[in-house]
Amino acid sequence: MMFREIGESAAVTALFDLYPPAKDRKAWEEIPKSYRERLIEEGEKWLNYEFPPIYASDFMEFCRTGNRTHYEDKQFKRRTVLNALVLAECAQYQGRFLDEIINGIFLICQEAAWQIPAHNSYIRDTPQQILPDVTRPVIDLFAAETGAVAAMAEYLLRDALNKVSPAISKMVDHNLENRILKPYLEEHFWWMGDGTSPMNNWTAWCTQNVLIAAFTRKLPENMQIDIVQKACRSLDYFLDEYGEDGCCDEGAQYYRHAGLTLFNAMEVLNHVCGGAFSALYKKDKIGNIAAYIRKVHVAGPYYINFADCSPIAGRCGAREYLFGKRTGDDSLRAFAAEDYRGCEDQLNLEEHNLMYRVQAAFSHKEMMKYGKDRAEPGLRQEQEADCYFPSTGLFVARDDRFCMAVKAGDNDDSHNHNDAGSFTVYKDGKPLFIDVGVESYTKKTFSPERYEIWTMQSQYHNLPSFGGVMEKDGKEFCAADVEYGMGEEASWISMELAGAYPRCRTASYRRKACLEKGGCIRITDRWEGNGESKDVVLSLMTYEKPDIRQEGQGFRMELEGLGSCSIIGGIHVATEEIPIIDERLKTAWKHNIFRTLAAFAGREVQIVIWRSPS
After folding, report:
1. CB under 8 Å to 50, separation ≥6 — which residues?
2. Per DSSP, what are the bridge partners of residue 522?
3. pLDDT digits over 34-92, tens only?
4. Rounded Cα–Cα distance for residues 107 and 297 (Å)
5. What is the DSSP string of 154-205?
6. CB contact at 8 A, 157 and 90
7. Contact at 8 Å (CB) between 258 and 242?
8. Pair 485, 491: CB distance under 8 Å
9. CA 152 to CA 297: how far, in whole Å?
10. Helix (H, G, I), strand (E, B) or coil at 114
């Protein structure tokens, strides 16, 4: 227990003022003028904007067709536009944007529900209700986030809004009380935790936003204490799911919704409770959670990805930078600052959460400077060290040209794909052997039919199938007998994978993946059991189209611009081109991808990824 012990005795001594309201002109004018001008320019784009109408039929569409995006696009657009207008008014503070801001606040407060249709249920993993019950609000990810957006907008512009009419703040307070604060204290939603149910990013994400909503306004003292203590219990349940190594089993993309929302929850708690939680920043586990993101960075926009995570996991910014600052991780600070400086969208224009955008505005000047002097301590002058995360079985090895990642672990991760034992390889910062990621979420994504979706299946990862038998989901379907070693000359991991497959006649399937530093990557797969070798078929997923040619006792894959790979002991079966037509996949893959099938000629296949053409 980290949070609960502190929360039981902590007193609320201040309200939320981590970042100043717009009336504090001295503070807002310390933000660089060029940044403030860009905020104003973006706000001007939404003057006289007609916010998208949201109809009951939009909400019902999810239950009727499974489509999530039509409703969510409208809901999210309202919030991002409101954010842009609020920040423009904070930057200029002349009242030019107030009418549009009031329109946005009114429309959001008039919505029948703040939760999205895909989350419109009261019990975890039960069918969603086709329409919201306005007498019993659901607090999901986006209801909580909407609460934080409305609360921040009102907090930042409270004085200006009250000059128009005190009714605006009263309306926000009324909606926060009835949609967020009362349900938070009186209902039990699964993400709050009970000490036995598994948690995921929802716990920290929702808790962070409830805390922002609560402490941007004056509440009765007993309510403040109850919220702090309940939040602390939930955050401890969340941390119970993490290993000491700090690995996010949902991947780098979800680190932004898990580790970083934990950080902001800590920020609010620590601030309103007079620094009572400051010692937690020095805990090894918290430091490891913070550092995870730099450890799984490959190069440029690419991150190591498994499960629902995309290889394009987003740029770092203020939250990563501040997390590194609080935990004393100068390497994380330098990494985040450098990544932020290379970002085309430093204003975070598509961000739903207004708090994050305010953090970026007030951290911009510092991030633009930190680490630019090569002599400054903390700058990432060397590549990350090889690492192994025991909690998830994730292994990462690097040299000056290769980054190889192998996922041992099991098939019971949050946002799981059946990918135990799969590997990804980057060469010179470019994707070579890939993990596809996930398509746009639909009703099917989080349903009993989840593993009918191709991206979830082991046959679309770098894994074998046995007579068509693929890996199965569940904790018992896992890599076993895992061994690894890391050194200056080579780093390697090996594991037994037969147990990841149901009804499998294979007695053993042993995989060893080794990065020979300054040399090649060698992945050796050996199987034992009944059946014919040709029934054991490897899937190899590549971003570039392979040019296949026979070579000795196997074949070679030439990948344009990236070099070559030998499949020794393998028989080329087929190569298929997989169209990338889904909008979510298009954010990672700018052209079609390829799947090559290789059957075993005997008991062993070696995949040798060459450093240079040979």
Report:
1. none
2. 514, 608
3. 999 999 999 999 999 999 999 999 999 999 999 999 999 999 999 999 999 999 999 99
4. 40
5. HHHTHHHHHHH-THHHHHHHHHHIIIIIHHHHH---GGG--SSS---HHHHH
6. yes
7. no
8. yes
9. 32
10. coil
Whole-structure pTM value: 0.95
Compute the distance between CA of residue 610 and CA of residue 614 in angstroms, rounded to an integer: 8
Q: Are strands 604-609 and 563-568 parallel, antiparallel or unpaired?
A: antiparallel
Sorted by sequence, the CB contacts under 8 Å of residue 588 that are 6+ apart come out as 310, 311, 312, 437
Q: Strand 570-578 relative to strand 474-478: parallel, antiparallel, unpaired?
A: unpaired
Distance, CA of 148 to CA of 75 (rounded, Å): 15
Question: Going from the N-terminus, what domains does the chain have, and what CATH number goes with each?
Answer: 3-369 (1.50.10.100), 387-609 (2.70.98.70)
Quote the CA–CA distance of 117 and 68 in Å, as a whole number.
7
Q: What is the pLDDT of residues 452-471, one digit of tens each?
A: 999 999 999 999 999 999 99
Calpha distance 482→58 (Å, rounded): 49
Q: Record the tokens describing residue 586, joined without a space.
A: 């298009």
Can you tell me the distance from the alpha carbon of 419 to that of 47, in angstroms, rounded to the nearest whole number?
48
Q: Say if residue 469 is exposed, middle or buried (CB neighbours under 10 Å; 0-12, 13-18, 19+).
A: middle
Which two structure tokens, joined as six digits, stand for 604? 């062993």
- Read off the tokens for 500: 């990841």
Paired with 466 in beta bridges are 469, 536
**What is the pLDDT, as a whole number, of residue 173?**
98
The C-alpha atoms of residue 353 and residue 532 are separated, in whole angstroms, by 55
Using DSSP's 3-state secondary structure scheme, residue 122 falls into coil
How big is the chain, counted in residues?
A: 614
